[in-house]
Specification:
alpha+beta; Nucleoside Triphosphate Pyrophosphohydrolase; 12-stranded mixed β-sheet; 12 strands; about 35% strand
């Protein structure tokens, strides 16, 4: 009997889509938190393009809509060889689903203390995706800019809060910006960016 990603997400649960988005150089692309997000002083989070799924919307439709809304351009979804179920604490296990394109991961993110939904689980379906053209229109309240990180920087993300300057020195690049950003700002991963770090670690240890 075939299993689909829908079977792994409880009906009525908070859910959305995130993109493990890469450019032509193989770097991973993340958005820098826009002006509507509250972050600690001197810090910003970075996360994958994506967001909540609307009522009646498929995972695929959500992925394309969010890309267009947040970057002004569409993306190509790429089927993943493996699909991982990832927990908030970094645990991961492979599963088999019949969806096409096949998702890279299902991230069961638990909302942290101090947030409106503390303790509740947000189910994020993550797809590999390729950027087809440069970002064009980005709403600054959602997206302050797009940063490209190397695989190593993504993997190290959950344990570090490097400044943008430090990341650039180590191979990162700000590929698009819609407002001023202090290069001394320290970055930390959230949502898809954190899940991707865990998936890349587990994939490396299992040879996938």
């Amino acid at each position: 009997m075939s299993t689909y990603i829908d079977d792994l997400v409880p009906e009525g649960a908070e859910s959305g889509v995130g993109l493990a988005l890469r450019d032509s150089l193989g770097r991973y692309l993340f958005f820098l938190a826009g002006t509507k997000f509250a972050c600690p002083p001197g810090e910003l989070f970075y996360a994958g393009i994506g967001g909540h799924r609307e009522e009646g919307e498929t995972w695929i439709e959500c992925a394309h809509r969010e890309a267009i809304e947040e970057m002004g351009v569409d993306v190509e979804l790429v089927s993943s060889h493996d699909t991982w179920i990832v927990s908030s604490d970094g645990g991961a296990e492979r599963t088999v689903v019949s969806d096409q394109p096949r998702p890279m991961a299902l991230y069961r993110m638990v909302h942290p203390e101090g947030t409106p939904r503390a303790g509740e689980t947000y189910h994020i379906v993550i797809y590999r995706a390729a950027l087809l053209e440069p970002p064009s229109e980005m709403p600054i309240e959602e997206v302050r800019g797009i940063i490209a990180l190397t695989r190593e920087q993504v993997v190290q993300g959950p344990e570090r809060k490097p400044s943008i300057t430090e990341l650039i020195y180590d191979g990162a690049e700000i590929v698009s910006l819609v407002g001023p950003v202090d290069l001394g700002t320290r970055l930390f991963p959230l949502g898809t960016a954190a899940a991707l770090a865990f998936v890349l670690r587990w994939g490396a240890t299992t040879g996938s």
